[in-house]
C-alpha cells in the first residue's frame, strides 16, 4: 500500500477524533445540592395525603378537619401538588422524577435491610454493603461519593454536609474524609450574618430536644443556608429527618406537615441558587430517600425487610444539564445510582472506580457527556 493510502487513513482517524471531541458535551453544572428526605413514601409523593390515615385513631391526627382542608382533594394530582407544590410545579416541569409505579418507573433499594444506615450507605457509596446491618454509630469503611469528590483539588474544602440525624457523620466517615459536617444538636460555627447565627444557636440550645439523636429540620436547613451564604460550597448535602421521625411517633399529620416544610426548603434553596451569581445556571439539585415505608393501619409507621413497600423509593433531579422529561415512564432505577449521578452532573465518572458502583440515573444527562479523568 502506498504512502497516499496511509495518509488517507491517518487523516480519517484524526477527523473522527476531532468529530468525537466536537460532539462531546461538557456539563454546565458546577455545583450540586443533594437533599435527602428520610423515609418519605412514594405514596404521598405521587398521590398526596392518604385519606384513611387522616384519622385520630389510625393516623394520630389531632385535628383531621384542619389537615383535610390543608392537604386533601379527591384528585390525587391536586393532592400531591398541595403537599409538595415546588416539586410538582417546578421539578416536574423542568426536571425529572423517578419512582411512579403508575408509570412503570420503579426505584428500588437493593440492600435488603430497608432502614437508614444501609440506605445512606447505598445512596452515597453507590452500592449496598451486607456487613452494614444496624444504625450503630460505627465509622463506615467504604468511601462515599462526597469524600471522593472532596479529595479532588478543585473541590477540597468545598463539600459540606448538614444533617438532622447525628449518625450521618459516621456514615460518611467525617473523621477520615475531612468534610465539614454539622449534625444533630451541634451548634453552628459558620454564617455570613453573626446575628442570624447567634439566633440559630440560641434555638439549638433552647428548643426542646424532642428526639435525642435528631434536631428539627428547620435548624438543619437554616444552618446549611447560612453556611452556603458564607462559604459557597460546590457540593452541599442536606439530610433531613422529620418525615421519618414523625411516622415512628405515629403522627401522620406531622409527617405531612414535615413533607410540606421540606418542599418549602427545596424551593428556598433553589431560589437562593438562582439569585446567586456563583450558582445561577450552574447548579443541579438531586432529591432522594434512604428507604420506603410499609402501608396499612400500622405499616406506614415503620420500615423493614418484613414490611412490603420499604424497598420502593423515589428520586428527583433538576438542573441545567437535565432534560425536562417530568415524571419518568417505563424505566427502572435504583438507590445506588444517586452517587454516580451526583458525580456525573459535575463531569466526574465515579461509577468507573469500582464495578460495584451503580451507573448514573438514565436520561438525566446527555448520552455524550464528557467526563474528567478519574481521581487517584
From TrEMBL:
Signal peptide: 1-24
InterPro entries for the chain: Alkaline_phosphatase_core_sf (IPR017850)
Keywords: Signal
SUPFAM superfamilies documented for this protein: Alkaline phosphatase-like
Name under which the protein is recorded: AP protein
